[in-house]
Amino acid sequence: MKTNTKFIFVTGGVISGVGKGIMAASIGAILKAKGLKVSMQKCDPYLNVDAGLLNPREHGECFVTQDGAETDLDLGHYERFLDEEMTGNSIWTSGKLYKRLIDAERAGEFGGNTVQLIPHVTGMIQKTFIENAEHFKSDVHIVEIGGTVGDMEGQHFIEAIREFGTKVGRSNCLYVHVCYVPWLSTSEEFKTKPAQNSLRDLREFGIIPDMVVARMDVDRIVKAPQVARKLATFCGVNENAVVLMPDAKSVYEVPLNAVKGGVLAPLEEFIDHGDPDMTHWEKLVKQIESNPKKVVKIGLVAKYIDNTDTYLSVTEALKAAAWNNDVKLETVWVNAEEATIRDFEQVDGIVVPGGFGSRGVEGKIAAAEYCLRNNKPYLGLCLGLQTAVIAAARIGGIEGANSEEFDAPEGKNVVYIMEGQKGKESTGGTMRLGDYPAKLVKGSKIAGLYGSEDVIERHRHRYEVNQKFLKEINAGGLVVAGTSPDGSLVEFVEAPNCDYFVATQAHPEFRSRPYRAHPLFDGLIKAAANRQ
Ligand code: GLN
Predict the structure, then answer these.
(1) Same CATH fold, 292-531 and 6-285?
(2) Domain boundary assignment for the chain
(3) Which residue's C-alpha comes closest to atom 8 of ligand 1?
(4) Which of 70-79, 156-165, 228-237, 442-451 has the lowest mean pLDDT?
(5) CATH for 292-531, options being 3.40.50.880, 3.40.50.720, 3.40.50.10330, 3.90.1150.10
(6) Upstream peptide bond of 119 is cis (omega within 30 degrees of 0)
(7) Is 364 a pocket residue for ligand 1 (Cβ < 6 Å)?
């Protein structure tokens, strides 16, 4: 197999949730800061074809790529850390892989051969690495393997990355194992045995890692040479290839902590490309730690308040805007099902994020109505635009106006389902997904915020504003501020009589970056701060 790209494979051990994805993305950020072209990919063992039909309460946010794939929230981390846009090919679940394999088998592509886990599934996994490297023309392609080593359901991925090392040459692959080193308070020592065991599991697959990242049970960077030595001796890695990582207060500290923890030595042995310029990470962390005096309270009127990962890109976009304005963000989670006027009164601004289904929707409509009537800053995202339109239509005289998603009464469907979308509600990958352009109204507040009349945002929705009711919606205080280029779909609305009442049918949160706040979130934080 010939390729000009080098590959980094990141596996995990001991327990899940130690930040393997953030570590993988941080390695990517460091290599990018060295001036290298970096791409990333996740391999996830689960059998769903994508994350589109997964329950967000269990699985967290469904992240949407520019080409319309409904993916795991890890891809959001990759985009925020690398500042590169992923594609549908940047994630391969076992389900998607098997689907591709079985479709190929049905199409007769295996020429009569018996189709097997090895070499066919592993070969197809390896094909995705090469496809990504070629598509992104990357110097380095990083592949994160979901789950932990030893999980039965992830074995085909581990075998695939081992084989790949022999195919493209061992020197073109760097194996990184992220594991966990707990602190035992009774005997006051770090325990490396679980990490040793997970490294042994990896060795059983024939992989001796080139770098071991030990997530330590501490809140600051510690010198623990005995931990590094032990892991090195027992696991056959170089001592200077053991990177000790403490808990971080913010995920954006991780690239800098990784440098301090010694990640550069093994990386530079693998690919030599000068020092990384970490200035923007240092600036960002300094801002995060600055603890500004001014506090801005933003109410997030949402349904899954018991798993706030469901709104991960939204909360990250809010944080980025707060950092950009040097204010301290206080996120107030408002349970949409129980929301009252008091919840809306106590915050400086409100976000209604995306959502599906009728549960809690009246609380979201009430939030929009409150903001419209009381000139409170409001940012509506996707469903948050639809709730704003419903609120305005009700104020504008259509009593009981609603969306067809929530059983609108006859002749009051101010948000409706378009012909081509009917009957697909429980089917995967059938919404209006990914990047779509919009034309903003000249002189509108939103065009001013973007500084342009032509914008592109990511989408994930099925329902649309019913323009038949524009007169009533206008009477309720909302105007259309942007549409699809042909004018057929409403993409943005705003309230001319409010200081900041802005909503979009898209998901701008996916395009926000930690050090480049998105204009709509930036505008919300500015308006909320100015009210005080
Ligand atoms: N449920 C709405 C729709 O399908 C909104 C979707 C969303 O908020 N992502 O149009």
Answers:
(1) yes
(2) 6-285, 292-531
(3) 354
(4) 228-237
(5) 3.40.50.880
(6) yes
(7) no
How does pLDDT run across 220-266, given as a tens digit for each residue? 666 777 888 999 988 888 889 999 998 888 999 999 999 999 999 99
Q: How far apart are the first and last CA of the chain?
A: 62
Yes or no: say if 524 and 351 are a contact pair by the CB < 8 Å rule.
yes
Question: Is the Cβ atom of 457 under 6 angstroms away from ligand 1?
Answer: no
Pocket lining: 355 vs ligand 1, CB cutoff 6 Å: yes
Q: Find tokens 């969306």 and name the residue.
A: 403
Residue type, 520: L
Domain 6-285: which topology? Rossmann fold (3.40.50)
CA 69 / ligand 1 centre spacing (Å): 16
Residues 6+ apart with CB under 8 A from 517: 317, 320, 321, 323, 324, 325, 525
CA 4 vs CA 83, 138, 161, 270: distances in Å: 22, 8, 17, 14
Q: Which residues partner with 216 through β-bridges?
A: 181
Which atom of ligand 1 is nearest to 415's Cα? 10
Integer angstrom CA distances of residue 327 from 298, 322, 520, 529? 12, 5, 16, 8
Residues recorded for the chain: 532
Q: How do residues 77-125 score in pLDDT, each as one tens digit?
A: 999 999 999 999 999 999 999 999 999 999 999 999 999 999 999 999 9
Distance 365 CA to ligand 1 centre (A): 14
pTM: 0.95
406 within ligand 1 shell (Cβ under 6 A): no
pLDDT of res. 2: 73
